[in-house]
Amino acid sequence: MIRKLVSVGILSTAMLASFAHAEDALVISTWGGSFRDLIDENIGKEFTRQTGVPVKYITGGTIDRLNKAKLATTPESDITFTTSHIGWLYANGNLFEKLDTAKLPNYSHLVDRAKISPYHIGSWAYVYTIGYRPDLVPKSIKFDSWNDLWNPALKGKLSAPDFDPSHIINVAALLSGGDAATWQKGEEKLKALKPNFKAFYTNDANSQQLIATGETPVQILLSMNAYYMIGQGVPIKVVMPKEGAVLGVDTMGIMKGTTKADLAYKFMNIALSSEVQSKIVAYKKASPVVDNAKVSAEDAALPGVFTTKEQWDKQAIVIDDKLRAEKTAEWRKWFTENIMN
């Protein structure tokens, strides 16, 4: 009996210690899967090494996490990772703290395109561009321009994301003499692309499956996904069209009401360090968002990995994040009704 009581006492002490440990953790809201691993492996572990503070993750979809944050009376996380345009919805909803950049020494190295708002800043960048299987499309097609997607030889070979059609909507507008603000100029051109679509993928895993099996040998795809698949042996060619590729920046912001603001700033500053940014590029083939990251010549040569100001200025199709946040629902509704149906 004494032995059992002692065991229970030890167990209770361990459980209390574990609970206290979890309570002291810095909580990060992010996507699951490889993106959660990206943050943990390259930022979270370094943060814990430097501070002794553990990191806890809550994961979910971009919009699901936004909706939960809107309904919460106290923030579920201390830092939230989200896309640059959805970050504006957090900011407009009074969910992010205004950042004190004096508490982020590495902010001085942040590239201009990663200075999204006074409330959220870039953590890494990427592009949505054309990726294709050279073994499964006519050899005459090289995709030097976005216009090449409209080639009739690609009928039933193309896929794009169903959750965010802003990339192709804005490309169609650009090719029609418009831009994000005048996106309707590209409506007819985009409707003309409809025969070439075979499928619309719902997430990264679905995208990878469609191109790996060859069901859709041409995709408007996330560059980081393409490089992951290439690493898995799928023969994908990623291109940089002459018009550029659609820039995406994933961002981080500090949740309003957090009790761990000082730790949150420490975490974000570590994320912006040249050492961590260099690791993120090597790990995920993303673009670094600081100007002092060290990038291998091999990675720097990859389409969509920006390491110079000229690349940021000339190869990125930039959709205004605030406008994009306002138009996302409208664009998705139009795309669903006119292209997907």
From TrEMBL:
Signal peptide: 1-22
Calcium is among the record's keywords: no
Entries under InterPro entries matching the protein: SBP (IPR006059)
Keywords tagged on the record: Signal
Pfam families xref list: SBP_bac_8
Superkingdom of the organism of origin: Bacteria
Protein name, per record: ABC transporter substrate-binding protein
Provenance organism: Bordetella ansorpii
